[in-house]
Amino acid sequence: MTEQYVADFKAFAGNGAGGAPAWLRKIREGAIARFAELGFPTTKQEEWRFTSVAPIKETRFALAHAAGAQPPSVAAIEPLLVCPPGSPRMVFVDGRYAPELSSVGGLPRGVHAGSLAVALTSGRNGELARQHLTRHARWHESAFAALNTAFLADGAFVHVAAHTILEQPLELLFVATGGRQPTVSHPRSLIVVERDAQAAVVEGYAALTDDVYWTNGVTEAVVGEGARVEYYRVQREGRRAYHVATTQSRQERDSFFGLHAVTLGGALARHDVLTALDGAGAELILNGLYVLRDSQHADHHTVIEHARPHCASHEFFNGVLDQRAHGVFNGRIIVRPGAQRTDSKQTNNNLLLSTDARADSQPQLEIYADDVKCTHGSTVGPIDQTALYYLRSRGLSPEMAQSLLTYGFAAEILGRMGRADVRDRLDPLVRAALA
Amino acid sequence: MTLLQIKNLRASVEGREILQGVDLTVNTGEVHAIMGPNGSGKSTLAQVLAGHPAYTVTAGSALYEGKDLFAMTPEERAREGVFLAFQYPVAIRGITNAYFLRSAVNAIRKHRGTEELGPVEFMDALEEKLKVIGWDDSYLSRPVNEGFSGGEKKRNEILQLAVLEPKLAILDETDSGLDIDALKTVARTVEKLRRPDNATVMVTHYYRILTHIQPDFVHVLAAGRIVKSGGKELAQELEEKGYDWIREPAAVA
Questions:
Q1: Coil/strand/helix, residue B92
Q2: d(CA B6, CA B23)
Q3: A63 and B CB contact within 8 Å
Q4: Nearest Cα residue in chain A from B157
Q5: A408 and B79 in contact by Cβ < 8 A?
Q6: Size of the A and B interface in Cβ pairs below 8 Å
Q7: Is A207 domain-assigned?
Q8: Under a CB-based contact definition with an 8 Å cutoff, are residues A232 and A201 in contact?
Q9: Do A272 and A392 belong to one domain?
Q10: Which of A279, A313, A332 is the last residue in one of the domains?
Q11: Range of the domain at A431
């Protein structure tokens, strides 16, 4: 099936592909070649042991194009937004920026949020894009990241200049509209927050369709020295959708990055979260929540790379799995030589609400420094009967007690989110998914 | 008025009979202490009264306010005013103490036909209770018992006791593992909550707590039966002589 993508690439590249600069065209050529080499992963590969991408491989996806199609209305988009009303937003329809649905007028000086396709062809932003785009996410190592890079055309470009504070959360909403035939989009985002700046970005994926479609996204986030970034990722794809994504962050000295990934949608989802603490004193909070039911399958692979000393990372992933749902968590912590005084904690808890639900949890520690504190733990199990009785002994009905204990799994993750305004908007979404 | 009347209660766990015929009557306004050596069935008695699903009542009866206690589910007992302070309180991940307490209060209020409290009203009512046990409100935003020290967990049970205002409070070794300050707080709270229309049953292994809470009756439980009852002077006697002088004749009988 890789031949089909190579053929599609030829057509895409032959079209001029949005007038991309020469350096990017070259990278795209390399990326499609790399994709053809790697091919789709199989469950024989360790990293894909619990997740079969055969349904993606065996489906013929046409490249989604917003052009010519009737764009959705603002009224259709609004219910899909997570941020409080009035927050700046960029909306992408099938991977392409939709300025008529977006609202970035009121951004403070020093903040640029716009289409990546446009940024690539402009002077200063084009230079910034060249400096960072495709430089962080390792497309050589992943067939999906390679494919995204090959078809890289549009997405979000966010730049927060040094010392700039963006008070309101900035929302990036990727909406799929589907079609008679399955379509694929390859949204690409680049977020660069420079030294001592502060920002919150909410990246959402949602659907206006129950059709089969595939989102294959990549986001690169660069957090400069002393910068503070809260990044929320809310995956609410359609029930028949496939979602594959890589989020790659790189942190510089004394920076803070809070990454909160909430996975509620999609039939089959795989999210690789790759983080690099590449400056002394950097701190990372990596929070994840997946709430799955029916036969939903969601796989989270996270890598936390401690490359420098005195960094801290705290990772908490919780899963609530009902019916025949399957959750996969693989958390790797790498402590490079010289990354002394690393303080790293990883926890993955899975609540199984049915006997057919399944969770696989795999922690992996690779430590090449000797003065470090690394802990990890994971649990997989049904509702704790002792806790249930404890709550009943306080007057709660068994149904209320179970609902409280289940919500607690989600609330634990929500409670660690840095922004109350975003958390308060996510809370009802999560409750609805649990109900 | 008789609040609780237990007659010839036998109960077992995993097929093993722990309680072998307990008789006990608790009237409103009274504080009872149940003492006894390890393994005598003290905690079993407490859990059976609260309705722990692992314990099976095999014989006997318990009337609470004249109603069959064992016919009620654990939540019905709680809503009717029975409260057990757990020996080993359970941690509830992700649920703050405030949220949990409000859920419990509202479950009880709903049962009684009184209006449920919103978050703000509830917090106002809670401030008062916090003062009683000498806590600041930082505990309210922490998840229930999660990461709490042993003493904090016990104190949290007492906070629940103060907030839920039960008619029958059963304290299962709430005094164990407490430092003297925490012990005094627990004792002060129990004394403060004492009213003519409620009652407290304290299950304890130690005499220490009884120097701070004056019981009206002291019972000795040994091998699943109450083998001796008396006034508070019995506790003093147990402190001096230990349990052996009581246990041995009981084993024969």
A1: coil
A2: 5
A3: no
A4: A394
A5: no
A6: 80
A7: yes
A8: yes
A9: no
A10: A279
A11: 385-435
